[in-house]
C-alpha cells in the first residue's frame, strides 16, 4: 500500500483494466479493501469513469452501496460521470437501495449530477424516482445546484419535472417530502436566482425569472438578487436585475445598498454602472458609514470615481481618512 493506503487493487481499478483486476484478485481477494479516505476499488473505478472496471468489479461482487469516509457511495460519484456508468450502477443495486441516498453533507446523487451539469445522469435518476425537492444540510435543493452550475438547460430540465411530481402528489401516488419552489431557500435564505446573480449567469437568470423566480426576495441578511449582482460587479447582471426590480437604493438588514457592496468588494465596473444608473454615493448604512468608509481600503480608481460623482460640499474627508487613503 502507498501513503494513501491504496493497494494494488486500487491502482488496477484506477487504470480500469479488468484483466489486471482479475489477476490481483486471484492473489489478494480484498475487493472491499479501503484506502485512507474509505474509498474501495469500485469507488475508485467509478470516480475515474472506468466503465469496464466498474462492470467487472460489480460482477465479482463489489458492493455499490459501500460508502467512503464522507458518506459518498458509488452512486454519488457515478452521478458526475457518464450515463453508462450510472445506469450500470443502478442496475446492480439491492432492493432496499434509495436513489435519494445522501452523503455526509446531505447531497443526493441528483444534486451532484445537477451541479456537474450532467443531463444524462439527471434524466436517468429522475426516471428512477429521484426527488428534486429534497435539500442538503445547508438547505440547498437540486435547483440551487443547477443554478450554481449556471446551465440554463439544466435549470429548465429540473423545473420541467416538478409539475410531474406535484401531479402525482395530487393523485395520492407519491408523497412529496418538501414543497418544491423555484424560489426555494437554503439555510441562509438564499434562492437559486441569488446564486445565478452571484455567478454572473445571464441565461440562468433569464430562465429562472421566466419560470417565476422573484428577484425582490431577501435572504436572512436582507440581501436581494441585486445585492448579489453588485457583489459580483458585472454591469450586465446588474442591468438585468434592475430591469425586473428597479430598486437601486434597496437596503440590506444593516442598511447596505448595492453601491456600497460594489465599493466594498472593489468592483470598479459595478460601481461605475450603478453610479450611471443613479445610485446615490452619499447614502449611509445603519452605522453611518458612507462610500468613503468602504472605499478607503480599495483602489484609488474606485475612490476617484466616487469622488467625481459627489460635490465637495457634501463630503467631509477628515484628516485620519486622508492619511489612511494616502492622499
Model description:
The C terminus is likely disordered. The protein starts with 7 loop residues before the first helix and ends with a helix. The chain is elongated, with a radius of gyration of 26 Å. It is mostly helical and 327 residues long. The chain has 19 helices and no strands. It has a domain of 90 residues: Serine Threonine Protein Phosphatase 5, Tetratricopeptide repeat. It is 49% helix and 0% strand.
Please give a quick description of this structure.
By secondary structure, the chain is an all-alpha fold. The protein has helices at 8-15, 18-27, 41-47, 51-59, 74-78, 83-90, 109-115, 119-127, 142-149, 152-170, 192-198, 202-210, 225-232, 235-244, 258-264, 268-276, 291-295, 300-307, 319-325.
Amino acid at each position: 500500500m502507498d501513503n494513501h493506503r491504496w493497494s494494488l487493487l486500487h491502482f488496477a481499478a484506477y487504470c480500469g483494466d479488468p484483466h489486471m483486476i482479475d489477476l490481483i484478485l486471484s492473489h489478494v481477494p480484498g475487493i472491499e479493501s479501503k484506502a485512507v479516505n474509505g474509498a474501495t476499488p469500485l469507488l475508485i473505478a467509478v470516480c475515474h469513469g472506468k466503465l469496464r472496471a466498474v462492470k467487472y468489479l460489480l460482477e465479482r461482487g463489489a458492493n455499490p452501496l459501500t460508502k467512503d469516509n464522507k458518506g459518498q457511495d458509488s452512486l454519488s460519484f457515478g452521478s458526475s460521470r457518464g450515463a453508462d456508468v450510472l445506469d450500470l450502477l443502478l442496475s446492480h443495486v439491492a432492493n432496499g437501495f434509495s436513489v435519494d441516498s445522501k452523503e455526509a453533507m446531505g447531497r443526493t446523487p441528483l444534486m451532484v449530477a445537477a451541479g456537474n451539469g450532467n443531463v444524462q445522469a439527471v434524466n436517468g435518476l429522475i426516471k428512477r424516482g429521484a426527488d428534486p425537492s429534497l435539500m442538503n444540510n445547508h438547505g440547498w435543493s437540486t435547483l440551487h445546484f443547477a443554478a450554481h452550475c449556471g446551465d440554463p438547460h439544466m435549470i429548465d430540465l429540473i423545473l420541467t419535472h416538478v409539475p410531474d411530481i406535484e401531479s402525482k402528489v395530487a393523485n395520492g401516488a407519491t408523497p412529496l417530502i418538501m414543497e418544491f419552489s423555484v424560489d426555494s431557500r437554503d439555510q441562509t435564505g438564499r434562492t437559486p436566482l441569488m446564486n445565478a446573480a452571484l455567478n454572473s449567469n445571464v441565461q440562468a437568470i433569464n430562465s429562472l425569472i421566466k419560470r417565476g423566480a422573484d428577484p425582490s426576495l431577501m435572504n436572512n441578511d436582507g440581501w436581494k438578487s441585486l445585492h448579489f449582482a453588485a457583489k459580483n460587479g458585472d454591469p450586465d447582471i446588474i442591468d438585468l436585475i434592475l430591469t425586473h426590480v428597479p430598486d437601486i437604493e434597496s437596503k440590506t438588514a444593516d442598511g447596505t445598498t448595492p453601491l456600497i457592496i460594489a465599493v466594498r468588494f472593489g468592483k470598479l465596473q459595478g460601481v461605475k454602472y450603478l453610479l450611471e444608473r443613479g445610485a446615490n454615493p452619499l447614502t449611509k448604512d445603519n452605522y453611518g458609514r458612507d462610500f468613503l468608509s468602504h472605499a478607503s481600503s480599495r483602489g484609488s480608481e474606485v475612490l476617484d470615481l466616487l469622488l467625481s460623482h459627489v460635490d465637495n460640499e457634501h463630503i467631509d474627508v477628515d484628516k485620519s481618512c486622508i492619511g489612511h487613503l494616502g492622499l
